[in-house]
Amino acid sequence: MRRILLCLCFSLLSGCATYKQSINDGLDLAKQGEWKGAEAKLQKVLTGSQDQLLYYMETGALAQNQGDHQRSNDLLEQAERLSDTFFPTNFSNRSWALLSNPRQSDYRGSGMERVYISYLKSLNYLALAAQAEDPATQRQYRDAALVEVRRIDIKLNEIRAQTPSYQDLNAKENQAFYLKALSWLGNFYTGGRDTDQYLYRDDAWARYMEGLQYEISGDIDDARISYQKAANLYQDGYAKQYDLPMITAERAWLDTIRMMQKGGFSQDEIDVLIKQKLSEPYQTRLTQYQEHDSELVVLEHQGFVPDKNEMTLLLYADPNAYSLVLEPLHTGGQRTANDSFRWFTMVYADINPLNLIANYKTGGAWGTVSGVFTKRVILGRSVWRQLNSVQLDSLLTEQVIRVTVPYYPPFTLDQGRTTLQLNANLSSKPSDSVRMTSLADIALQEQLAQAQRDIYEGMIRELLRSWLAYQIAANVEDEGAKLILSLIGQVAVFASSAADTRNWLTLPAQVRLTRTPLPAGQYSPQYQTNTGTFSMGEVQLQPNKITLWNLRNPE
């Protein structure tokens, strides 16, 4: 009876419903701009202790979209504390996740998400400063925004210390052939792929926003340094990595040069930089900034980062080659099957020589070709003996094991033109908006970087769960009961396999920047995209002041 009870408990482990299925209602409301309704839905779903960080991040972002900036910061501050890099891992929590599914472990957030907690908080403080009436309160909020800017800097410096820089990647491309070969040979268990190129190593847009906030606060030299860091990152590889236009670097260099002009740098030094870094259109734009001009800065936070799907892989043994083989199980309709297969081919399929040889030995010429549709994990004879000693080889030859991993389906970003109308009596004109970052691409590439870890962790987890169910049934003497328990265990393990598809879904997919120097005065700005028009209302632009419009476009 104890064994039967254990098996029944095992079958009740959660994992059949994915994170995506649980939050779709709230996310659908958010995509319609129904921020309050979306928050209410997500609050009901993200109630578990393992989702506490997600709760504060999602509700904090939605509170900002509602204009409730103080409440947003209260929620995001809770997220800040939970996302601390040194947040301890609970052993029992991780053990339970290993026996059930990774959805049961505490969500810890990605490096990008930790940076954008402080990013959103800094925008909240700027909004509170703009709403404050007395100068002392305004300065207090701007100082608080600068605290968040420094937090961004600390977090990015920590990430930089743990990842190769763009200069390191460029040096790798230029190194001798034999060194490239050695590096490639060292990547067998990452599928022969260099995952370094997908890592989130720094954030040019976050650096640029540091510069903007320093400029708003009047810290000209700090603004220059941050703008220049952003410009170097854009041109060294950030724009290329995340499929951004190269004018992102020009935009950052233009603002660097403006700060140099304000900071008293020599005209000769400025002229050299203008000639080296700015095209003729941007040189003309630089002249539009007059000494007493004000400036309207529009930040369009557009769309939502994509949500992850689950891919099912079937794991079985190939004793002749002392290896395990994984191949995708196509479910969910033709489109989903095509998306998952493309991801599998891109990330997991056998392309390195050892796997090609093993596939050839077991299946001839067709076996080599079929490696495009499978992933082979070569264990070797000694490891296979270890599996034999614990009867895992018998388990793998008697049944197929389901392994579930997360993946991103294809997505497209809005790259249409935008227009900015400053007053009702003025005609609309192209706003010269620039796509400064793509959080969607950052999230996608972070998943690519950890994809191999996900598949090996998933494989180990499902082997352990299947082995436990197998041992429970094997220790029953009655053949009829053994057969029933074995069937129940296989079905329970197969059905409860799940991947961790959680991420911060209310973050924007991309950010577009529009900076327009204007004479001081009263304006009624309207910003138009291909999906709608947004109005800022009446605004008074002050001389030598930057007015920031943080615009959230859900479509």
TrEMBL record:
InterPro entries the record matches: TPR-like_helical_dom_sf
Record's keyword annotation contains Iron-sulfur: no
Highest classification ranks of the organism: Bacteria, Pseudomonadati, Pseudomonadota, Gammaproteobacteria, Oceanospirillales
Protein name in UniProt: Tetratricopeptide repeat protein
Secretion signal, residue range per the UniProt entry: 1-19
Keywords tagged on the record: Signal
TM region positions: none
